Amino acid sequence: MTTKTFRYLRCWNVFLFDRHWFSFMVEDMKTLLSTNLIYSIMAKEAFVKEAADDILRLTEWIREVFEDGGKLLIFGNGGSAADAQHLAAEFVNRFLINRRPLPALALTTDTSILTSIANDFSYDLVFVKQIQALGKPEDLALGISTSGNSVNVVKAMETARAIGMKTVAFTGGTTRPGGDLAAVCDLVLNVPSDSTPHIQETHLWLEHVICEIVEKQMFGTT
Q1: Domains and CATH numbers, the chain
Q2: At what angle are helices 79-92 and 196-219 packed, to 10 degrees?
Q3: What is the mean pLDDT of the chain?
């Protein structure tokens, strides 16, 4: 950047920008926005092409769990932890339809439980012990991991399976679709992308569409 492009005037304490340079930057950012959106859409389209039947299978499982008196236990790390809480909130409160609350619980919210297990035992067990305490054979365990390799999610799935729960994972990636979770889950919904942001964006879309379908299956459109 030349001094003609960017200049600082000490007396006025302001920055002066070259208009042509600023216009170029704006256009460059607009290109980034468009490109990012295109790749995000492509990730969702590729996912639906591969996983449409499995998405519908999962909505049937969730409906059956709710109708049979079971509950949905959801967990993950980081952004996936936020997804777990988001999805649980949509079921417990509502998504698009005013209806009775549906039993879904995020295992990522109780800081006392999480930190005591991590401190006294291992972070690898923060979901395992909650599954042991709360899980029943009629429940469904839903683990979210963009890589499919989160150790605490994998161990929780092994525990859920031992209890007799259905086990489902949301993952991403193209090299090892499903990662380590593929071997310990009854159903894996894998986003065929190596971009973590686009995998997470697709997971959020998936969570919303699952809520919408389950609501319509159970309560109609009113």
Answers
A1: 18-219 (3.40.50.10490)
A2: 10
A3: 92
